[in-house]
Amino acid sequence: MSHFLRSTLFLTLFMGVGVDAMAFDVYLTRHFEKQSHSQDPALAAKGLRRAKQLVNLLENADIKKIYSTQYRRTQQSVAPLSQQLKIEVEIYPANELDALAKRIKAEKVNVLVVGHSNTIPPLRALLGGKAKEMSEEEFGELFKLKIVDEQVTMSSQQVGVNE
């Protein structure tokens, strides 16, 4: 066996080098402040400001995919980033979080998912993070799940400033 082949085999077996050793980041946030409690409201002025501030936080995060539910408030929350990065927003059904989590884990690329107070906590748990409840009044928290070989570390930060 050649020296090159032995070295490659050693690295693969003992160092864990391989395609499954990829690290990727999943960013999760609830839609930003909405105008009303109607069925499909648009974002309020404060929510639109947060959407623009999200660009500053994630424009250099190497986001490859952006996922949103079909609602206006979620799509408006990611529209500025989508336009900046020239990435089309992919719509996911809010009641199919298992399928979305499996897809994200299989793709192994940096993604942003925007959802709702009742979808982001269970999605976080499905991806290996902590499922902390969210209230109807919480807006602007951006969660980052760093996934390396199925090991998940989670952090969060605020998008913009609470007024």
Automatic annotation (TrEMBL):
Record Pfam families: His_Phos_1 (PF00300)
Q: Output this protein's name.
A: Histidine phosphatase family protein
